[in-house]
Structures are given as C-alpha cells and as structure tokens.
C-alpha cells in the first residue's frame, strides 16, 4: 500500500528542505511494499544505478535539459521490466518510477529529490545486501546508519569497503 499523501507535497518543505517523510517514513513504506511485491534487488539496483548515472551527468555538465530525456527513459525501462518473462518487476515499481519521474522532470531540485528518495528506498529495502526484515533489527538503513547519504562523496563512491570499515569502527 502506498504511503498516505505519497509525493502530494513534493520532496521539499516550504523552506526548501527535503521533507523527513521522503527520506524516512515514505521510503520505508515504499521499500516494504516493493519487497512484498517481490521486486528483486537486482531490478532495484539496476534502476538506482541508472538514476545515479543521470545525476552524475547532470552534476558534471550542469545542464538539466541535457539529462531530461534520460529521466523520461526510466519510465520506458520500468514498463519493460514489468513485461519481462522471467522475474518481472511488479506494477507498483512502474508506478513508483512514473510518480517520481513526473516530479524529477520539473526541475533540477526535483531530480535531486528523486535521487535522495530512491537512495533511501534502497537503503531501507529488506531485499538489498545487508538487509533483512526490520522486525529483526537488521535493516539496510541500520547497517549504513553512520553514513550521511546527502553528501556528494557518498552518492558517487563505488568503493563500498569504506562503508564496511566505518561500521566496524563503532
């Protein structure tokens, strides 16, 4: 089930800050819903990596209009994922992508809001590496709790050994 008022108020509050529910409550609910609908971690990771590439291209070029077609392509790829013969993505995932692409296409800030929201959904997903049901206390978010996923370095780092070393220092 979708979170109540999901994305109705956008990603940001009246002061221009990312709303907490986008990063925490709604992200948890979406992650659980997609896991319950059997979205594979490979599908989620594939789309997350596509979005990461779009955001990186935008940050490097500084040209939002240059990445808009790639943002729109996410809808096409989601529709294809739902129609796959083996391990199809659930229709809820296609709706998740559509709803977020609509907001991401409005502005540069919308694209970054989608990225941060999707990053949180991935972190809270019980199907992702290091995840597990939150009831057991072993969620992906807890494993990465010491990391702030808002800074540029964590969003672009492909070296996960840094994160693993951080969690062993506690």
Descriptive notes:
Helices cover about 60% and strands about 0% of the residues. It has about 170 residues and is mostly helical. Helix 4 (about 65-85) packs antiparallel against helix 5 (about 90-105). The radius of gyration is 16 Å and the shape is globular. The model is unreliable at about 130-170 (pLDDT under 50).
Question: What's the short version?
Answer:
The protein has 170 residues and is mostly helical.
Provide key terms for this protein.
mainly alpha; 0% strand; globular; disordered C terminus
The rough form would be described as globular
> Which structural class do you get from the secondary structure elements?
mainly alpha
What fraction of residues sit in β-strands?
under 5%
Order of helices and strands: HHHHHHHHH
Q: What's the number of helices? A: 9
On the 0-100 scale, what is the average pLDDT?
81
Termini separation (Å)? 36 Å
Secondary structure: helix percent = 55-70%
Oligomer: single chain
How many strands, what sense, and barrel or not for the largest sheet?
none
Q: Could you name the ranges where pLDDT drops below 50 across 5 or more consecutive residues?
A: 130-170
Number of strands: 0
Helices and strands in order:
Elements: H1 20-23, H2 25-36, H3 41-61, H4 64-83, H5 91-104, H6 108-124, H7 140-143, H8 152-156, H9 161-168
Helix pairs in contact: 2-6, 3-4, 3-6, 4-5, 5-6
